[in-house]
Amino acid sequence: MSLGQPWEHQHGRISLDNSNSHESNLLEYEAFDVLSPRGPLDEGLSVLSVDMRVAENRKDHYTDNFKSSSLIVRRNKEFTISIKLDRAFSAEQDDVQLEFLIGSSPNDNKGTYITVSIGKGKHNRHWKGRVVEIQGNEVTVGITPNASCIIGRFRTFVAIVTDFGRQRTQRNQDTDFYVLFNPWDPADQVYMDKEEDRQEYVMNDVGIIYNGEYNNISSRSWNFGQFEEGVLDACLMVMDAGKVPLLFRGNATEVVRQGSALLNAQDDKGVMVGNWSGDYSSGTAPTAWTGSPEILLKYASEGCEPVSFVQCWVFAGVMNTFTRCLGIPARVITNFFSAHDNTGNVKTDIVLDKDGKIDRSRTKDSVWNYHCWNEVYMKRPDLPENFSGWQVVDCTPQETSDGLYRCGPTSVNAIKEGELSYPFDAKFVFAEINSDLIYHKADKLGNMKIIYVDTAYVGKLILTKKKDSSRYEDITSNYKYPEGSLKEREAMQMAERRGVSSRDYLPLAEAGVTIELQADTIKMGENLKLTLNIKNQTSQTCIISAIITGCVAYYTGVTSTTFKFENKSATVEASTTESLTIDVKALEYMPYLVEQSNLLFVVYGQVEESETSLSTMRVVNLHPPELTIKMTGSPMVGKELMVSVEFLNPYNFILQKVNLRIDGPGLILTKLKYYSQILPGASVKYKVLLIPRFLGKKVLMACLDCPLLRQVTNQLEFEVVKDENRNDLKE
After folding, report:
1. Which InterPro entries does the UniProt entry name for this protein (predicted)?
2. For 423-470, what is each residue's pLDDT tens digit?
3. Residue 721: DSSP 8-state
4. Has 9 been annotated as catalytic?
5. What backbone torsions phi and psi does residue 710 show, to the nearest 5 degrees?
6. Which CATH number does 29-180 carry?
7. Does 228 show up as a binding residue in the annotation?
């Protein structure tokens, strides 16, 4: 069967159970086929109540952060249930069974109907059970779900079994409980051995996502909110809507592969609609979101209708919530200068016209300033042992995989070694970080010629949030060996043996001259100074002519209006460097800016003496104006705290249709304030009252967004302490 397609029995007649929300319950009384009177028989034993011991169990299972009244446990770890009977329980004489059901067609063979016996019956098969304690008429039972059981919401029944039949408790939603993956247990597929890793990649409910460009890294806080009320049910609903069979929900590899397809709505009714057009009038702009709970809860409350609109970092943020919520360790990754290789040939082709400008009609590949995906941590039983660990998963819809828009999981270690024949989608990920940037130039007749190859531009820097820190960690070396090293060449040769096209265009004739473009870091609306450094490494003087083209661009590398076109030339002495300055005025680029305010400069140069060509690109990300967050009062659990968010419009144009969001897990549900306009020079101030619910480090984040101004964000980090006048507070 291919993943993600309609799931049916091998004979095509019986559908597999693929919903956690649909349920079929057992009869209260089930008579056995014996020659005796039918009907419930009172053998002097009946169930009076069932206590799921929620508080104690959840603390033991690291699930007490969930905003839910239900029991939530993890695989292969015992939890206890107390059963009150109408008389004392006898292990030698009584047969009491606990029955756990999931889905609409409970089946013992498929792990969707579990029976655990205490007393004289021996019916245990999937899960372990034992009597922990008997006190009077109350028996406490220990239940251990096995290490590979289905994750999801189970229903609980207690049955008294006699020679004549089985008498069950009534359906009671208070005894429902959830089973999650268990990264604390070595037997679980998602086990992590370090507690600090589990705290960061499973328990941390707020993170940082990096963006901007390679030489000018920006960041924004993101509310993962995996413990927020309703989020767990929403994550299970995602799999229900995608008809993921319950049978496969115990396999972390299957769950994340399905998730990478179901979180985008490209080819099904998935969670989020990707949009890179710049027109978001029929939904929310991707840059306006502050976290995952708002999106997941909107999807769930509106009958699984896809949420509009998002881009790669939002896809990655929500995927991180989906996986952490279910107990799979995960983190968000940013790859700077990420190739979107439509053909998977590890070549990114940039076509210049006869004037040295990018030919938009003939340039099909693109290099994203940055692209965000996820890594999930798990054993891969389907791969050699050294390819377990971090796996790339990407739900941004770029290319199809087995017929659906999804990507991964693919082993990070396998990518580094060029071992691209293992599932899933290794060639595509390899191309994102290893593509050669190939510049072609068309002559007057339209004939194409390769003029320059840059083997080091793509996959320049790969980052993730550092553990227990607001700084980033450079993990580029996890994905690739140093450029030009022996190991890097060996990995590329391995990739070619695994089906990647050979680099038959290398090596090109060396010009002996290199060019580099440097740029100031500036705010949107300021003038910009570019510096073109020309380094002559030959033993003779060279004359270099250069064409500099400037255009506005989306962060995906897709170019829009060209606003700058300038010719420069320089005579560079042997073994020296000459610098040329290009002035870019704000009034040149401001009328043409598109979202996220990126400028793309392309240089096409020629060395007259050798008639060789050079080319390079540089992205300049313009910083947005500031958003200020101020707090009045001391942050204490249970005490009111006033927060104000302020913004001043520094431009000479009106900002219209402005949305201001405030968000923070454990602090406040997402607040949205709308302003029809903010006049030039005018300021706005939005005040909110919040009451922190838990002790510890917290992050409050704010985002201002409108069609003319995107990515205006800020965050406030602080420690919530205990109010000494109260002693009923939880850490």
Report:
1. Ig-like_fold, Ig_E-set, Papain-like_cys_pep_sf, Transglutaminase, Transglutaminase-like, Transglutaminase-like_sf, Transglutaminase_animal, Transglutaminase_C
2. 999 999 999 999 999 999 887 777 888 988 999 999 999 999 999 999
3. B
4. no
5. -120, 165
6. 2.60.40.10
7. no
